[in-house]
Design brief:
Layout lengths: L5 E3 L5 E3 L16 H20 L5 E3 L9 H4 L12 E3 L6 H6 L6 E4 L4 E4 L1 H17 L12 E5 L14 H5 L3 H16 L3 E4 L30 H4 L10
Parallel strand pairs: 3-4, 7-8
Antiparallel strand pairs: 1-2, 5-6
Length: 242
């Protein structure tokens, strides 16, 4: 605000004044975000961690990639062939399932190609391609390339929400849609021989409030799916996080 990037208007609402403020450097030249900001940050972070923990492997999470960036994204780490003791850790989700909170076996979305994908096998192939693209981004890291682990992958378990906001499976006990959504993702992960960590486990997940963050409900465990468990453990139902 002090630099004139935004202000508060007469109604008390924030108003953006300079939309391209962060797109140009002090001299007016276009900012090269990867080489001038992201890579230097990664280098310094890896160096500082390694100085205190010589045996540590630092995981680097790159920016998300969409269709018009897919070729340039392969160059994210070009020039970092001298950086060791790190591995790539991108996140990947089936965006059709994640955003719509609905599983349709024959339909999804490819963010790398900015298009809908039709047909079960085509959806799996598209997922395999996207995961492979993330793995290829690790090749320029270090003198021999770097390992890659999909740092987040999972599904929302509150699929097929009803008008009252309750997921159908929480009422019927039928989790077949969730099972099939996981199966489709696993086909792609295994086809890519990908290492991954599944998101997520939330100890206080509930049907009503999910993971208690950002309306997400991705936890593989929920206290509401274990009848009587909380009472047997002598635990009370927790209030949702603010």
């Amino acid at each position: 605000r002090e630099n004139g990037v935004w202000k508060v208007d007469g109604m008390g609402h924030p108003q953006l004044l300079r939309r391209d403020h962060f797109a140009h450097g002090a001299g007016g030249d276009p900012v090269r975000f990867l080489s001038e900001h992201m890579q230097p940050f990664f280098r310094r972070f890896v160096r500082e961690v390694s100085a205190h923990l010589p045996g540590a492997i630092t995981l680097l999470e790159p920016h998300l990639v969409f269709g018009n960036q897919k070729e340039a994204a392969l160059d994210t780490f070009v020039g970092m062939d001298d950086v060791e003791q790190c591995a790539l850790e991108p996140h990947w989700y089936d965006l059709g399932v994640l955003f719509l909170k609905r599983y349709t076996a024959w339909l999804s979305f490819s963010q790398l190609e900015d298009r809908l994908v039709f047909g079960y096998e085509a959806v799996v192939d598209a997922a395999l391609y996207m995961i492979g693209h993330e793995q290829r981004r690790a090749l320029p890291i270090g003198p021999r390339g770097s390992a890659a682990i999909i740092g987040e992958v999972g599904i929302p378990f509150d699929l097929d929400r009803e008008p009252d906001g309750t997921a159908a499976a929480y009422r019927t006990g039928d989790f077949s849609a969730q099972r099939d959504a996981v199966q489709r993702i696993m086909q792609a992960l295994e086809g890519a021989l990908a290492s991954f960590s599944w998101w997520c486990y939330t100890a206080d997940n509930s049907n009503a409030h999910g993971d208690q963050w950002n309306q997400e409900d991705l936890s593989v465990w929920s206290r509401d799916q274990v009848p009587g468990a909380m009472q047997r453990l002598g635990m009370e139902t927790a209030a949702p996080a603010p």
